Amino acid sequence: MELTGEHRIPAPRQRVWEALQDPEVLKECIKGCQKLEKVDESNLVAKVQAKVGPVKATFDANVAIVDPVAPERYTLVGEVKGGVAGFAKGSADISLAEDGDATIMSYHAKATVGGKLAQLGSRLVDTTAKKYAADFFEAFSAKLGGGASEAETGAAPADAAVSAAPAQPNEQVSDVAPTGGGVTSNPYLWGILAFAVVILLLIALA
Amino acid sequence: MGIEGIGARVLRKEDRRFITGKGRYTDDIVERDMTHGVFVRSPHAHAKVLSMDTAAAEAMPGVIGVVTGQQLIDGAVGNIICGWMIYSKDGSPMKAAPWKVMDPEVVRHVGQPVALVVAETRAQAADAAEKIVIEYEELPALTDFSKAMDDGAPQVHEDVPNNLICDWQLGEEAATDEALATAAHVIELDLEQNRLVPNAIEPRAAIASYNEAEDHFTLNSTSQNPHVARLVLSAFYNIAPEHKLRVIAPDVGGGFGSKIYIYPEEITCLWAAKHLGRPIKWVADRTESFMTDAHGRDHVTKAKLGLDADHKFIGLKVETTANIGAYMSLFSSATPTYLYACLLAGQYTTPNIYCNVKLVYSHTTPVDAYRGAGRPEATFVVERMVEAAARQLGVSPAELRRKNFISEFPYQTPVLMNYDKADLHGLLDKGLAAIDYDGFAQRKAAAAARGKLRGIGFSCYIEACGLAPSKAVGQLGGGVGQWESAEVRVNPVGTIELLTGSHSHGQGHETTFAQVIAERFGLPTDNVQIVHGDTDKVQFGMGTYGSRSGPVGMGAIAKALDKIEAKAKKLAGHLLEADENDIVIEGGELKVAGTDKKLAWHEMTLGAYTAHNIPDDMEPGLSEKAFYDPANFTFPAGTFICEVEIDPNTGVTQVVKFVAVDDFGVIVNPNIVEGQVHGGLAQGIGQALFEACHYDDAGQLLTASYMDYCMPRADDLPNFALDHIETPNPNNPLGVKGCGEAGAIGAPAAVMNAVTDALGTEDITMPATPEKVWRAIQANRPAMAAE
């Protein structure tokens, strides 16, 4: 199973990269995220409750980062386990490209999916995955630039994630930057891993 | 025939309750203190179970208990059996690896059960099932069974090297090779039988209960053969001896073979009902059905047909690899061997036939008999080869068949079967007339003018059903006899209960069986009650599959009726002071032939029960039992002709005409026979154009719901043109042959012959989906343009 996507985030690349450092921000941007914990510099575990059609489960994600080139690209390897709902495992290549004042995040993921997620097929879950992506980038863009991610047209504001965010997007951005700057050793990996949870969830649902 | 006798179009008696929602299926039954079971299933195709933690699940609200595979092993529950022994060509017995009910160590297909959670409600059980933590170590899976025997292929069972269960053969290889070597023409095709999911409308279900006071089990279950279920549950799975286990199969919504078998779920629920002390209901959801009901077909085949200069078939060599799945199901050894290769003569006098079948394991759901069971596969091979031969030789497919038809009966084929009687030319003649064969060229041209590709395809099938003479089955390795039993109880007031070992799950036995009695005594069918599907009521039965309820089930009824008739005549003769040989029974009366002396049926029956005036050597009452073992298989045959139109822009194939002319012997109820043919044709067309069960390379089942598994719908089907020839079966008391599978047996070849005719290529596999058809058109484009 393969998944490719591209989203334009209305913020400079460096800021996008830095914004990926705040676990709370990311947690809020991932719909249904209950837990996001760093194991070490390149490993992360997360717990996300997701629902796709008849399959509703809490997924435990286990993600590692391979070959990061800050702030341009990196590869993720990991697995998501949803108990009776099934599992996904695979890898994703992610890159951040500058596009004027904005950043284009693109990903290409390959995964094997098992259990109910495989059985119920991509026809149903594909749309769910798109909704998940839309929700994440909506919320993430809102935190960074106050605007909607431009990959979606006519997207409504993401519900839970956005409502948890402060009403003033600019204040949120100013909150983010110092946090990112505060991480000294290998500052970027942590956030990248958090984003990997989203990717893996997409893989699982796609 | 009376108005309700044999041959009458009596409306199905059972439909009233079915179409008004008053059927009583397993899931409709509620027992006191009943609990609900949910199975935890493997998400992996092949993995070691490293650990299983059930503590959190057991602590969930409403949970009564969790049953694991190890508990069943500790409880001495036996392994699941394959009931038919076959031998490899070197004489060694097939290698059937153990099938543990819930293997606690290794899972070998997605959906394999690993634990049963029992709770007060189904929702509670489902919630608790999610709390069971299982650690798996994933292992490489074998999904592509054509590579099962390759070096380095993942091994499904340790003790079965190269995943090869059996290297089986039938026929004379040397003679067939020699015939092919001397043949003027040799036709070769690679053929595939797509894997199918049975899709009974009612998913499998079970209610297991245990009465401690009587030390007695009851299983309500969606079984096609409750007595066989009880037999194996007792003899092999050690649930309880037969007299301590009652199996009831109430209304059952379809089976198509998939409900013959006794699966891990029923066994586990029975054991758990005693262990936990509460009745347990388990009802499969649709995805569980997709994952665990035994699948059908799944062959790859290389075939060669040799013809002499005069276009007579002189040799047929067939080499097949058959996917058995992860475990050997009950009839899985017979389905791709004896039920397949024995039909490779088809309707033709081919003198040399050789078939080699390699049965292999894979990490997929077990594969077993599905409507037609081996005969659709055989018919597909023979009829695709014959059609391809006609095309390559540039002769009429009808005339090539005619030239090779068997015309003298009985006919001993080179592959065991002895055909009793058929009128093959008559079937083809009727088929050609019904389809207006001569007008096809015109229809093809008209279609071309509309931008459509029109094709025509034949399928002249003969099959062996009415399973089966027990001696023959025993000689071929079958583990059971395949007779049937019946008991006719005539009540004092003259009404009748017929207890039959056949089981109706859509076949309409309540109607047809009553018609057989109505025919014999001239009684209305409303005076007859059919009792089936309960081991406490019916003496014994082998159940319903292989189109056996007509020829074998009704054969037993006829034998029991013979006994009733003889006693009734004897009693009537006594009461009427006439010779019993002069008594005739008609119109519900017993008459002395040639006089006006008569007794009403109920006067005679009352006399039998009052016993105030019966012959001295006669026992009171009027109730008789019979067991009937058929003398031979029965051989329905037919000609199917299909016409399709393909839209080259979209690749969509439409079946525009379908003629089916069948010889089922004597027809008891034309309505029901036509319904069986319609359903069979729909399934056959489904196999040819729509249905396919897909696994990915990791062994994940990708088609586990109706979003991904395409079933034929009413608007995919044409108005079928049906006709019949009635050649009474000389070996059957009623002259019947069986009609339950013919449609599914003959249709795939007819459709694919039409599709390949329209496309001008033999190179397309089932199902011929729009994508495959479109690609075949693109691949063929230069050739088509050149024509």
How would the global form of chain B be characterised?
Answer: globular
Question: What oligomeric state is this?
Answer: heterodimer
Helix content of chain B: 25-40%
The percentage of residues in β strands of chain B lies in: 15-25%
- Helix count from the secondary structure assignment of chain B: 20
Q: Please tally the β strands of chain B and state the result.
A: 28
Rounded mean pLDDT score of chain A: 68
Task: Record the strand order, biggest sheet of chain B.
Answer: 3-5-1-12-9-10-11
Number of strands of chain A: 7
Query: Which regions of chain B contain 5 or more consecutive residues with pLDDT less than 50?
Result: none
Structural class of chain A: alpha+beta
Distance between the termini of chain A: 8 Å
Radius of gyration of chain B: 27 Å
Q: Report the sheet-strand fraction of chain A.
A: 35-45%
Average pLDDT number of chain B = 96
Molecular shape of chain A? globular
Distance between the termini of chain B: 57 Å
Low-confidence segments of chain A, ≥5 residues, pLDDT <50? 149-191
Strand order of the largest sheet of chain A: 1-7-6-5-4-3-2
Largest sheet report of chain B = 7 strands, mixed
Based on secondary structure, the structural category of chain B is alpha+beta
Describe this structure in words.
The complex is a heterodimer of chains A (206) and B (787). Helices cover 39% and strands 37% of the residues of chain A. Chain A is built from seven helices and seven strands. In chain A, strands 1-7-6-5-4-3-2 form a seven-stranded antiparallel β-sheet. The longest helix of chain A has 25 residues. Chain A is globular. In chain B, the strands form seven sheets. A seven-stranded mixed β-sheet of chain B has the order 3-5-1-12-9-10-11, with helices on both faces. The N and C termini of chain B lie far apart (57 Å). Chain B is built from 20 helices and 28 strands. In chain B, helix 9 links the parallel strand 14 and strand 15. Chain B has 787 residues and is of the alpha+beta class. At the A-B interface, strand 7, helix 3 and helix 4 of A face helix 8 of B.
